[in-house]
């Protein structure tokens, strides 16, 4: 009999603000410890929180991207627990009155094809600081630079049925939030974190007891960890055991999940509305502005690239993977380049530099001018690629580089006629043989003209001249 | 609801307060009196527990928001001046012991 | 008078209060007074020029420690200054020193300070009230003209009544809490004491107004000191029957009767009204306040500041438990435990949420009365005059009930004040005025009018 796996993910993303959620300290990464701090994020006596408008705006955009219902009144609540990197002894979060509820996320499941799953809620909260366990022997060191960083927590419905599906969900979620400009969603820099709930059941049965898996630092590791946990639960139950509600941590080195704490130790968070903060009230007009400013999302962009620009499905997938790629592509098209030609430039030379450096080396206008020179026959595609390589390094116009490299194709009839005349004069034997019917020698003559021109002659323009002269 | 030593010890664990058994008995007696005072509130609405979980707002009815501008609140002195234990700019605390969830 | 002269005079008076063993001031220094005076004398005069102001030691300052009357914060110097302190300095005020209080403002007698109890300024065997007992006592002792205290559930009005000075609690949100060590955040109001209504009102005016650092401040212009009233004709003053129970202390009743007759003489109409949920204010307060306090005091964990203690197990939990178990006094521990209990799983609906519902009814009571054409309410501030030290420390509930008349305005967030209205057996008695939200002006002007026609030092039962 088969097992069905049931997975729900809780994703925390860092909102792309300049300052923290409740204080005007910068949100930084990699600063000296405890330097990006103030009385508020240090939890000093007498300090008070003041919410960041931009965090509210970005959280709302994120919620709109999932098609959530935005609640015009939501409430910040205190979640009470002790931990050395939690300065106030409570985290300001949202509890029973969150910013948004009831959204969806659509993506391609590796097993089930196109799939739409539920987003339970999106709420705003502040991050804790960092506890470092390896700096000082026998002690824990606390850095509060990160404390107070604005987060959106996105809780998904338990609609996922495999570790691979969980990974595809995360890829789509990340893509959506990056498109909406909500978050950079970098797991390496900690701006996206995933906690997973997983249970198994026989198909048709009610939900089984779930466990929570933490400490997964990449999408690939989410898939690995969930696969390990799925197998662990199956082996446990098939061996006559029962799943107990535990939190597990994933060890990427060993590929194993290990229990962290049992239900007995779990917290009683004693949530209550934060009396330092009145309700967060969003006006209709403000919300309408947010709807209006929501950028085009991945699905809409994919459809447009396919239908309006007529690009093949593979190209659409590559070009829409990230908004930066799609924007770059569209900027080249906007300069008049044929969409398929632009797609080829972006997916070939462009992406190579984007993947390596995180940015496109050549501004779109120059790519467009380069493509135009190819279209006009001034450059061969091969020569254009040489010019492109130079463009990435030098801050110059493509034409100047092409001239410098001497790769602009000569189509001037006078110049071409001169080279043709010279070649005919130098090769009387071949001329005779051609005239006697050895038609393939035309290739020889073209080659000779190219050689004589130093490669600058436009091969397409040479043939008619040669034929005219040889048959004259 | 009668507050006993067990309740006091449970609350003390949640609140991270060291309370000895002897203190717990005295506190249980005092807390019990306080809870009985508080239970007069049932006279207002009977025994039905309140389901309204919103806070009571006595100040502004909606929270103001701050512009996203970096302007750290000035501090006359840094954490090193008040930290009980600090090394290389980091607050130091003993090992986490039972608190292993990180 | 120059600030330098004021500083010298203040130093002399503070030294005299110390010599009497009042224990009202925890920190003050003559060099610091002189240093401030030099700056003040170099700056243009302001509305508080010539006024020395003592600060309750739960208001943070960078030049003196802020202990909150707790061992846990012994020696703690804040790296930032409270908004109110910056404002009173800018207005020309001289900060006299930091005053003793019930630990973290939890108490009604200033007996719960880790640094010893504050004596009543006129009767050493009595308490000065609390939790702002040090501020009340030092004003009553004549060492300063005004002081800042903090109100959570009457902690300024009650000691003002006990000590025979004026105490004004503004509307919640009128004065920034930035830099006030939080106790009950939905209740806390920094509130001035003054030797006179005018002094307290001037100090309140100087510190009031919105603050971008406190998201709960009201977006209203600062309070202005109202012009004096010649009479109170056209004014309707409600007298809620629930504040005059049959067993009310007879001296308190006599003082109130006399004050009400003076208000009538001034032309006010006194009208009996009802605030039916008054008796539930103390029970509701002792749920809401501890719940907020338990969370507010979680930050005192010995990790970033404060006096750290490490228990025998040597791990982080032992650090928390020892730091908090030994650093907090008994009343603070009680409130934290109660606050934890009323929010804990299985009890939050029954206690916390029910108390919130009752708090709404108390607010509705006031709304209804003020909507019925009543301008102000007059009541006694306290059910009795100052009590003896030690009298109520054994049973916390007895102590809590001393705040029965001051709690309702705190829960409702409305302005309320106490002014001296006479003495009984030499003990000062206070009358309370309560006003509709943000109408401090009417309340202060009526108080000033009453003050001008009443001999507050006279015995009310001749």
Structure description:
The complex is a heterotrimer of chains A (472), B (102) and C (462). Chain A has 472 residues and is α+β, with helices and mostly antiparallel strands. Chain A has 15 helices and 16 strands. In chain A, a hairpin with a 6-residue loop joins strand 8 (130-132) and strand 9. The longest helix of chain A has 20 residues, at 219-238. The termini of chain A are far apart. The mean pLDDT of chain A is 93. The mean pLDDT of chain B is 88. With 102 residues, chain B is mainly alpha-helical. Chain B is 31% helix and 7% strand. With 462 residues, chain C is of the alpha/beta class. Helices cover 37% and strands 14% of the residues of chain C. Chain C contains 14 helices and 11 strands. Chain C has an 11-stranded mixed beta sheet, with helices on both faces. In chain C, helix 3 (83-90) links the parallel strand 2 (52-56) and strand 3 (94-99). Chain C is globular.
Secondary structure blueprint with pairings:
The complex is a heterotrimer of chains A (472), B (102) and C (462).
Chain A (H helix, E strand, L loop, with lengths): L3 E11 L38 H13 L3 E2 L2 E2 L1 E5 L9 E5 L5 E10 L3 E14 L3 E3 L6 E5 L6 E7 L6 H17 L12 E10 L9 E4 L4 H20 L7 E6 L4 E7 L9 E2 L6 E2 L2 H10 L4 H10 L5 H8 L2 H12 L4 H19 L6 H12 L5 H13 L4 H8 L7 H14 L1 H8 L5 H12 L6 H13 L1
Helix pairs in contact in A: 1-4, 2-3, 5-6, 7-8, 7-9, 9-10, 10-11, 12-14, 12-15, 14-15
Chain B lengths: L4 H10 L6 H18 L3 H4 L40 E2 L2 E5 L8
Helix pairs in contact in B: 1-2
Chain C lengths: L2 H17 L5 E3 L2 H13 L9 E5 L26 H8 L3 E6 L33 H8 L5 E6 L5 H7 L2 E4 L19 E6 L2 H11 L28 E5 L9 H16 L3 E5 L7 H16 L19 H12 L2 H14 L5 H23 L4 E5 L15 H6 L5 H6 L3 E9 L2 E9 L4 H14 L9
Parallel strand pairs in C: 2-3, 2-4, 7-8, 7-9
Antiparallel strand pairs in C: 1-3, 4-6, 5-6, 5-10, 9-11, 10-11
Helix pairs in contact in C: 1-2, 8-10, 8-11
């Amino acid at each position: 009999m088969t097992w069905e796996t049931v997975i729900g993910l809780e994703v925390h993303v860092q909102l792309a603000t300049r300052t923290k959620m409740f204080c005007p300290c910068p949100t930084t990464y990699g600063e000296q410890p405890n330097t990006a701090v103030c009385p508020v994020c240090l939890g000093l006596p007498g300090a008070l929180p003041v919410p960041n408008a931009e965090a509210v705006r970005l959280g709302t955009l994120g919620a709109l991207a999932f098609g959530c219902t935005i609640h015009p009144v939501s409430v910040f609540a205190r979640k009470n627990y002790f931990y050395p990197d939690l300065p106030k002894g409570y985290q300001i979060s949202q509890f029973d009155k969150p910013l948004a509820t009831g959204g969806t996320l659509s993506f391609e499941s590796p097993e089930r094809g196109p799939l739409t799953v539920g987003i339970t809620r999106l709420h705003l909260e502040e991050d804790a600081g960092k506890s470092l366990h390896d700096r000082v022997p026998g002690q824990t060191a606390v850095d509060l630079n990160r404390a107070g960083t604005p987060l959106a927590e996105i809780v998904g419905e338990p609609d996922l049925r495999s570790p691979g599906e969980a990974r595809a969900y995360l890829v789509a979620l990340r893509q959506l939030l990056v498109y909406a400009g909500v978050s950079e969603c970098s797991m390496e820099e900690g701006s996206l974190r995933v906690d997973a709930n997983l249970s198994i059941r026989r198909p048709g049965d009610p939900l089984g007891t779930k466990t929570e898996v933490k400490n997964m630092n990449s999408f690939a590791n989410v898939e690995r960890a969930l696969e390990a946990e799925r197998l662990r639960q199956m082996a446990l139950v098939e061996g006559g055991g029962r799943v107990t509600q535990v939190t597990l941590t994933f060890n990427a080195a060993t590929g194993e999940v290990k229990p962290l704490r049992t239900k007995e130790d779990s917290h009683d968070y004693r949530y209550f509305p934060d009396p330092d903060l009145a309700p967060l009230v969003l006006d209709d007009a403000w919300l309408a502005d947010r709807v209006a400013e929501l950028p085009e999302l991945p699905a809409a962009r994919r459809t447009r690239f396919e239908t309006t620009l007529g690009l093949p499905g593979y190209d659409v997938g590559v070009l829409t993977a990230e908004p930066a790629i799609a924007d770059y592509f569209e900027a080249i098209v906007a300069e008049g380049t044929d969409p398929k030609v632009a797609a080829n430039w972006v997916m070939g030379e462009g992406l190579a530099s984007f993947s390596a450096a995180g940015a496109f080396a050549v501004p779109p206008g120059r790519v467009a001018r380069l493509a135009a020179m190819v279209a006009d026959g001034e450059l061969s595609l091969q020569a254009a690629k040489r010019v492109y390589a130079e463009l990435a390094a030098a801050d110059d116009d493509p034409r100047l580089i092409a001239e410098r490299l001497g790769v602009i194709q000569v189509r001037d009839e006078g110049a071409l006629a001169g080279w043709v005349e010279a070649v005919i004069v130098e090769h009387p034997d071949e001329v005779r043989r051609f005239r006697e019917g050895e038609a393939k020698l035309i290739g020889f003559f073209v080659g000779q003209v190219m050689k004589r021109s130093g490669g600058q002659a436009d091969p397409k323009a040479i043939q008619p001249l040669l034929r005219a002269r040889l048959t004259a | 609801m009668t507050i006993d030593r067990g309740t006091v010890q449970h609350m003390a664990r949640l609140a991270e307060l060291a309370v000895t058994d002897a203190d717990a008995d005295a506190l249980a007696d005092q807390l019990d009196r306080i809870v009985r005072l508080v239970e007069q509130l049932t006279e207002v609405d009977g025994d039905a527990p309140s389901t309204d979980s919103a806070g009571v707002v006595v100040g502004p009815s909606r929270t103001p928001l701050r512009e996203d501008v970096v302007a750290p609140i000035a501090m006359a002195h840094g954490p090193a001046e008040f930290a009980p234990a600090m090394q290389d700019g980091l607050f130091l605390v003993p090992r986490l012991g039972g608190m292993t969830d990180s | 008078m120059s600030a330098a002269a004021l500083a010298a005079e203040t130093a002399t008076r503070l030294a005299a209060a110390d010599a009497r063993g009042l224990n009202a001031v925890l920190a003050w220094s003559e060099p610091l007074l002189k240093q401030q005076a030099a700056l003040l004398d170099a700056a243009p005069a302001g509305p508080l020029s010539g006024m020395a102001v003592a600060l309750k030691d739960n208001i943070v300052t960078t030049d003196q420690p802020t202990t909150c009357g707790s061992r846990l914060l012994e020696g703690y110097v804040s790296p930032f200054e409270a908004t109110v302190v910056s404002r009173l300095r800018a207005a020309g005020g001289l900060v006299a020193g930091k005053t003793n209080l019930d630990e973290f403002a939890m108490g009604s007698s200033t007996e719960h300070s880790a640094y010893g109890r504050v004596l009543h300024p006129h009767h050493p065997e009595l308490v000065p009230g609390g939790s702002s007992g040090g501020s009340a006592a030092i004003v009553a002792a004549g060492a300063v003209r005004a002081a800042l205290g903090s109100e959570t559930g009457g902690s300024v009005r009650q000691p003002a009544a006990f000590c025979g000075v004026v105490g004004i609690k503004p509307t919640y949100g009128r004065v920034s809490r930035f830099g006030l060590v939080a106790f009950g955040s939905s209740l806390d109001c920094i509130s001035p004491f003054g030797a006179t209504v005018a002094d307290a009102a001037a100090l309140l005016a100087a510190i009031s107004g919105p603050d971008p650092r406190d998201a709960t401040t009201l977006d209203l212009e600062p309070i202005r000191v109202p012009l004096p009233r010649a009479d109170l004709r056209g004014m309707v003053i409600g007298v809620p029957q629930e504040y005059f129970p049959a067993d009310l202390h007879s001296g308190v009743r006599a003082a109130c009767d006399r004050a009400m007759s003076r208000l009538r003489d001034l032309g006010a109409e006194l009208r009996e009204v009802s605030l039916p949920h008054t008796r539930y204010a103390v029970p509701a307060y002792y749920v809401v306040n501890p719940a907020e306090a338990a969370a507010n005091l979680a930050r005192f964990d010995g990790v970033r500041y404060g006096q750290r203690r490490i228990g025998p197990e040597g791990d982080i939990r032992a650090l928390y438990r020892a730091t908090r178990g030994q650093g907090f006094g008994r009343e603070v521990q009680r409130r934290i435990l109660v606050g934890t209990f009323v929010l804990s799983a299985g009890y939050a609906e029954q206690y916390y949420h029910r108390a919130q519902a009752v708090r709404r009814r108390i607010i509705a009571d006031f709304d209804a009365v003020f909507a019925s054409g009543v301008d102000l309410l007059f009541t006694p501030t306290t059910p009795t005059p100052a009590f003896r030290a030690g009298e109520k420390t054994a049973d916390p509930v007895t102590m809590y009930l001393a705040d029965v008349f001051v709690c309702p305005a705190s829960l409702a967030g409305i302005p309320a004040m106490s002014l001296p209205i006479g003495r009984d057996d030499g003990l000062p008695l206070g009358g309370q005025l309560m006003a509709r939200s943000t109408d401090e002006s009417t309340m202060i002007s009526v108080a000033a009018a009453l003050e001008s026609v009443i001999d507050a030092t006279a015995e009310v039962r001749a």
